[in-house]
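Appendix B, record 7
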Amino acid sequence: MADAELQTFTSIMDALVRISSNMKSIERELHCPVCEEMVKQPIVLPCMHSVCVLCAAEVLVQRGYPPPELPPEPNTPTSSPITRSPRQTRRPPPKTDRLDRVIRTVCGTHPGRRRKDTPPVIMLFPCPTCGKDVELGERGLADCLRNLTLERIVERYRHSVSLGSMAVMCQFCKPPQALEATKGCADCRSNFCNECFKLYHPWGTPRAQHEHILPTHSFRPKVLVCVEHEQERLQFYCRSCQCLLCPLCKLRRAHSGHKIMPIALAYQTLKEKITKEMNYILANQESVQAQITQVESGIAQTEVNSTVAKEQLNQCVSELRGVLAERQGALAMFLEGARAQRAGTLNAQLSEKQSLLENAGLLTYTQELLKETDQSCFVQAARVTHSRLVKAIENLQHFSLSADPSFRHFQIDVSRELKALSSMDFIQAPLAPVIDTQKTLAYDQLYLCWRLPQDSAPAWHYSVEYQRKVGGAGALWGRVLSEGSSESNGTHCSWQRLDDVGGTSAVIDKLEMDSVYVLRVRGCNKAGFGEYSEEVYLHTPPAPVLSFCLDSRWGLHAERVALGKGQTYARSVPGMTLLQAADRALTSCHLTSDLLVADVSITQGRHYWACSVEPGSYLVKVGVGIEAKLQEWFHLPQDMASPRYDPDSGHDSGAEDAQDSPPPFCFLTMGMGKILLPKCGVSNTSTGPLTAPLPPRLGLCLDFEKGRLTFYDAHSLRVLWEGSVDCSAPVCPAFCFIGGGALQLQELIANRSTEQNPPRRVTIQTRATDAGH
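Structure tokens (predicted):
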């Protein structure tokens, strides 16, 4: 029996200790971020963080805002003025204390102002949790609701930590005979023992319906009420504004069109979400523990790596000091040599000047020389003396120091070095490269071009990563997504990588046709890899790329059409024919077109090619046709102004040909920055032709077996128009100029000369640096 009682007592104590331990673990969550103590009368800021109302008022006063009326500390049994026993004298139930009146003043009411008063100051509260200035609005703390839930949690925490050691005394017993309170009344806002509670709450009276709670030192309102309409309960939740509303606030224009739900539904929804989230975390405690271990390992590695970095810093500074001392010695020696040389020169000049003084060497010698009477001997000896005297007189008349004593050329300009030393910092990894979407394209291969931001550290080499996207990429082709691949609807294959890429461009080959690829790049230097660039989505051509050159074997008019180097560029300039036809321009316009064809013919399969038409071109036709029919059309030019002439339909008149037979050629007409989309196109449901902006690059895909020619915007591979063409004979790409214009065939990426710097190899030390990449 004693063992059973001991076991029961032990289990009860273990449960109490476990509850106390669990409650103690949340103590950090109950601290005010301002005073770093347990929160008292917390209010909810607009950023959804909670602080003590007294701390919030103090911070606002320190910021220069008008001081609000501060609430007092919560009443306690020792500070409450109501200490008389109800057995001596009956008294009405205790009234609301000053705390709630002040709380309503600070957090729920705001006096009106006259029309001529100055506009209220919008208060900004610096939230210490999120580190931002939160706008409180015109009424300041009056717009902030009390966090009653947090108050209840704090109260339960205090009870669990104390484990019954701090008793709450009855407020209506005599002090000598005061009993421990067993109940608290939320309506009377006082603590009672059993006898006093029965005395003040007689059976059968309205007071018997009061809500009784556990004894407490701080009473709170039973429900939250609107800060603007004090008698209205908060019964709705606005999902758009993320705030609670009363029935009157719901009718305001500010919430018109917002998603508003009843508070019960919001309560149930949010409670279910939090329960699921909590259960998920509880179910992944092993992952949490593994991450804790990883963080602890990261902390240890941080200490080790910081020590290594500090040693490297000291070594670098010591090397700088050694180089500086060595350079100082070399410059000092050079300066000493210049000083000795100049001092010797000036001393020689000084001796020479001193010899010119009276009774000095030169003048005394000259006086003795003048005493010589032998003429031949005098002339022989006087020649040298005469030269010295002439030189002395010249120096006397034009005196200057023989050496510069200022040493102004020996001043050292260390401004650049000081600037470099002052800006000396730890090396940073390169910033995220910026992909050049104008130069990046997908043709026979993928060509990716990028650059580093101006304020980025240099990169020694780059790493290019790409992966094939499967499905759901139609809306993402050819554009950059700053959110990354996590926002896309499709799935991806594994990432493939090109390492040690030198320069700022890369070519990727061996890709699948008609597929979308995601590409990104990042730089690397001694500090390691930097951030990834924004991901770019590129769509590969729908068929193998056809490589060809322009051919003029059918009679090129040299005065009007000129081919560029490599015969991939052509320009047409109106010549004398147009000038001579100006006389009959009012009656008719007989212009001959200039036709250029490819030097290859297509007899089977699917093929894709692209070209660019100059936006300032007058009229340019791009398409395909049967080689024989094109030659016939070229040698028998039609009247361009005739209504029977329609090269886009493939023939001159529809009366001669059968309705079901496809035309021998198919063209799209473009010019003056526009492209004409004929009727009966797949992207045109109207009864007549439409015009669309001319894309920078035009793509064409010919399916020889099906006799279909599809025109694309080559940048995004968006279908512009699709037409039929007779493929019973060899078909070749063709281009026609009417008036001035120019076009450029898309160059194969494989033929480009990618001049890249040789990759710089770098070995990144990985010792004690496994925490990050």
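Remarks on this record: The chain has a mean pLDDT of 76. The CA atoms of residues 427 and 527 lie 6 Å apart.
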